[in-house]
Design goal:
This protein is α+β, with helices and mostly antiparallel strands and 289 residues long. The protein contains 9 helices and 6 strands; from the N terminus they run H-H-H-E-E-E-E-H-H-H-E-H-H-E-H. The strands form 2 sheets. Strands 1-2-3-4 form a 4-stranded antiparallel beta sheet, with no helix packed on it. Strands 5-6 form a two-stranded antiparallel sheet. Helix 7 crosses helix 8.
Length: 289
Amino acid sequence: MEPPVYKKRAVRPGIVDHFEAYLRERLAAYPALTAVRLWRELKERGFVGGYSIVRDRVRELRPAQPAAFQVRFETPAGEQAQVDFARFEVEFVDEPGVKRIVRTLIHEVVADIDDEASEIVLVVHRAGGAHSEMRLPKRRRGQRNSTSGDIIAAIRQLVLIASDDLIAGLLNRNGLKTGNGNRWTRERVTTTRSYHRIPLFRRAEDSVEPWLNLSDAARLLKVASKTLRLAAEAGQIEAVHPLPDGPWIFARAALTTDAATSITERARQNPRYPAGSHPDQQSLFSSTT
């Protein structure tokens, strides 16, 4: 009796085979696409299978990536500076579609000191003869990158009406930097305050703030903000202006003085020009009565 002979069963196409052409096209255009991304794209096109089968097929179809360009060598300490290589694939205008590999090489970096300018001069020598110069400020002996005293004084006044976050925004708006040349953040303002023992801004528990900004002070006097600002600029009422592009700060006590009352009365008497003129200002025209 002869053993049965079985025919080779025809391979049935898998559910991902219908999408293989799409996978090849996408991987040819973007070899770094992840399997998760491609699986989601297939689902949008009607694929009902799981992620693992797509992952295995992508692994088979993904084109091989060229090895990264890297050259490493070492020399004894102090004998040679770092040499940086770079590799670029450039398509030139004279040959569209043809990419060439361009490599650049920094031959050496020479450092010198300009004592008169108090600067460190760095000259970068590149292969091919192109050179470039960089100048960096030289730190003097005992020099510290401390924050300017004017900035500290401004923060000390701004905390009367502003939080650390708002103070950071005001300092940046005025183009001011930290001692290390960085932009201000809330954390840096907080650190500076703590170091110089400047108290944190807190709202008054009874909601009667002892210090007011221009808008709140003008509202309390029932005058226009422009009226109060012009009076403060003229020195007719006591106020603090820590930054050129920043808020005016008024003490609540200063808004109950005779000077504040005078500003309010002038604004009411001359509503068309509420800023008015100073009562001691002499007229250019003699009286006709």
